[in-house]
């Protein structure tokens, strides 16, 4: 057994879970504005998905003007628990 194959399988599973996390975020946000802490709790139910992944997705979407995050200062990138996220 090669150690590389286990790492590759883990990377593949993590990539799959991150795609599921992105889809889950979109589904949740399509129902209307959501509080960050509620979104985070629902997305972190997925295996191999971390808070930094969710924050990173939202930061990228914010930069691409796909979402609006209320409750952030001008230089802040990570939403606070009571921040509200909505699709643009």
Task: Explain how this protein is built.
Strands 1-3-2 form a three-stranded antiparallel sheet. 14% of the residues are buried. The chain has one domain: Arc Repressor Mutant, subunit A (Orthogonal Bundle), CATH 1.10.10. It is built from three helices and three strands.
Integer tally of domains: 1
Task: Based on the coordinates given, report the CATH architecture.
Answer: Orthogonal Bundle
Mean pLDDT: 92
Q: What order do the strands of the largest sheet run in, or round the barrel if closed? A: 1-3-2
Q: What's the CATH topology name? A: Arc Repressor Mutant, subunit A
Overall, the morphology is elongated
Largest beta-sheet characterization? 3 strands, antiparallel
How much beta, percentage-wise? 5-15%
In short:
The chain is 56% helix and 11% strand. By secondary structure, it is mainly alpha-helical.
Tags for this entry?
three-stranded antiparallel beta sheet, 88 residues, single chain, 56% helix
Can you lay out the helices and strands and say which pair or pack?
Elements: H1 3-30, E1 34-35, H2 36-43, H3 51-63, E2 67-70, E3 84-87
Antiparallel strand pairs: 1-3, 2-3
């Amino acid at each position: 057994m090669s150690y590389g194959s286990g790492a590759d399988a883990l990377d593949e599973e993590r990539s799959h879970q991150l795609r599921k996390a992105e889809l889950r975020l979109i589904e949740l946000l399509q129902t209307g504005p959501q509080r960050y802490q509620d979104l985070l709790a629902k997305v972190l139910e997925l295996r191999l998905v971390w808070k930094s992944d969710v924050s990173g997705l939202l930061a990228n979407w914010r930069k691409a003007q796909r979402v609006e995050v209320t409750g952030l200062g001008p230089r802040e990138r990570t939403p606070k628990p009571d921040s509200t996220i909505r699709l643009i």
